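Homework-ish question, so no full write-ups if that breaks the rules, but can someone show me the predicted structure for this set?
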Amino acid sequence: MSLRARLSARFPDRLPWHRSLFRKYVLTLVSLVALVLSINAGVETWILYRETVRSVARAQGEYAQEAERSVEAALGEIERQVSWVTRASAVTLQQHRDDYELLLQQAPGVLTLAFIDASGRVQVRSGRPGGAAAGEPLPTRPGFAKPVFRDGRSLAALVVSHAWPEQAVTVAEVGLEPLADALPAATPGSGSYAYLVDTDGRVLGRTAASPVAVGAEVARAEAAGAEAGGFGRSPDGRAVLRTLRPVAALPAGIVVEQPLPEALAPIRELLLRLAWLFAFGLVVAICASLVLARRMVVPIRALHAGAEHLAANRFDHRIAIRTGDEFEALADSFNRMADELSGSYGRLEVEIEKRTRDLARSVSELRALEETGRAIVGSLDLDAVTAAIAARASALTGARTILVYLRDEAGGVDGLAAAQGVPDAARAAVAELALAAMPGSDAATRGPLAIPDLSEAAWFPGRAAMREAGLSSGLALPLSDAEGALGLVLVLRAEPGPPASPDVMQSFAHQAALAIRNARLFQEVDAKNRELAAADRHKTHFFANMSHELRTPLNAVLGYSELLVDGLYGPLSDKALDALERIQINGRHLLSLINDVLDFTKIEAGSLTLSMQDYSMPAMIEQVVAAAASLAHAKNLALTTEVAEGLPVGQGDERRLTQVLMNLVGNAIKFTESGEVRVAAKAAGGWFTVSVTDTGPGIAAADQGRIFDEFQQIDSSSTRKQGGTGLGLSIARKLVLLHGGRIDVESEPGRGAVFRVHLPVRASEERQAA
Amino acid sequence: MTKRILIVEDTEDNRRILRDLLTVAGYDLLEATDGGSGVALALKERPDLVLMDIQLPVLDGYEATRRLKADPATRHIPVVAVTSYALSGDEGKALDAGCDGYVAKPFSPRKILALVREILQDA
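A: Not a homework solution, just the prediction itself:
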């Protein structure tokens, strides 16, 4: 189980571990401690490192100095041996040769000896086998020359000066073996070693621990320069700290080296120590932060849980924190808040419950009221309305005994209009109560009369009878509107107390009053309508009858006239015939007047029906023109037609349409004194357009709208002059309208007039109805 | 043989006009002043044509025509309504009742004569 899982198990929480406060606490504390420890370790390590490197360099430097002294001592010993041959007593070459032989015998380290005079020539030369070959160039500068290796030995030429002859020198070739062990054994620091190396990289001497042998060749000429405590590579490739020191007496240098692991051992130890310290510090920090975080987070979690309980309306939860600090104070505040919330929530719940109950009651009352409205306003029959009022009052109040009284408007007498569930024993008492509660003339000020308990209504004499009949409470609702009292609803219940809320009962009373008023208005309107219809029927009947009665004598007038004209009763004088013609003309005119009046009456009464049939527009026009030809001829007017080719077959009432055209053509001829009357017809888009154009006096714009109205001619003088009822155009327009068409006029005074009939080619019954 | 025409008409003037017109034209005339006697006379005399007013006492012209047309003995006799009921639809009503022709009042004697001659094929 991972640490995280363990912590999560230990501190269960809704928040995921990576977001929790606990984690933040722990991580922050541990990071802080780790940072401090790391900085400390770094600084300490750096200081120790500097110190270590410096002390190694110092120790190596001291050793190198001492080693140089040892090397110089060894060299000095060699030089001292050779210097013996430069004694002043030897002046001859033989003496020098002898000295050389002697030295060669005594000093095994010397290989060859040569005497060189001031001019640089070799005067004497002695040597043993293995020495340098004669003829090799010899150095002349006093001191050791650069070492050379031959046959596995390290050799160097040593030049010593003679006191006499001046500038003469002895050059000795000496072995450098004494140098091999010349370095002091005590090298500084464990694992360290030293060696002496010439400028060619040949090792001349070494300490025991040195990885290089005498005579070995190292890659570099270390002796060339000085170095103290630098980093480098040992001849066998290891990283080392080393110091170089050149030797003054010999072109060679001392190298002191210590492998890095040994040189930096103190640092490694320090690092190990620091690591332990770091680990310890970390553990301590983790433990401390866990403890601290827990002390912080556990109360916060408790607060959180408490707040969640509050949010979920669980007000009985209390937060238990006993830390004695701000957390406890906060928890106490939370708990107090929960107390108060719990209290107010409880009050709120009670309040809401009450409100909900009230609302439900209101809703049911409103619904009942709405149904009531629908039921009692739904009818316009007064009896049905009062019955509905009684039924709905019963439904609304739960009362079985309901009485509805209506005030007769005419006589102010109150009458019982509807009643249900009235016990016989209580009838008289109920009537008494109704009388007492009936609204008077000041109905607007009269409110409902409520008797919540009949036993307490001492003022009411009939209460005993009513209680015996099982009635305990009563409510008298006056029905009235702005125009006055309409009646009364009496609600009598077996249970005491108010039947429903006063507002509801008041609304009910308003609705009932409205319904009664509407029903009464409707009754009036209905009665008026009936009267109007009867009057209309009478009018139509009267006109029809009159038409009949007028026609009968007219038949005699016209009939006798015609028989007379035809000579049936013997020959007549011209004067008599002329008079007879006038009789006939006036008789026919009278007939046309009667026909107009009759048509108009029928149209007005809506009883004129069209008899639809196919007709030919050209034939119709031809017929009209033929009938009118004599009239036109009599006034010397040209009557012309202009009928388009291929007009479609029309549908409509041919007789009536002929009547319309006849009227228009007749009018045109009647009002035109000279010129022509032209009838034109064309069809387009399913419509006929028939125009009647005249060259008469024309019609003023102001009159154009009026001429289609009944009994209108342009002025009364023209009526007198031209005759006619003034109904012709009105009838024509109505007939065209019945066909679904329209008729209009275009005219200017003095320029004649054009009447146009726009008529659907196929007029239909539907259009007629519309 | 002289054709006989029955005139059923309650107005004396109209009866006389028809009588004068048709007598001169050479027809024999039978006359009745109400629907009931008109029907009875037609059954009895079997005229060649009946000119029937519509608004008549006792039995109106429609009913009289219906009766004549219902009786096999008189069914073949043509009946022409001659009436002051000249409103639209009146002609239809007359034809529905069984009339074979319809003339509205006021009528033209010339046209009546022409119609009678046409019906009796006496041109």
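Now go work out the reasoning yourself. Hint: Chain B has a mean pLDDT of 90.
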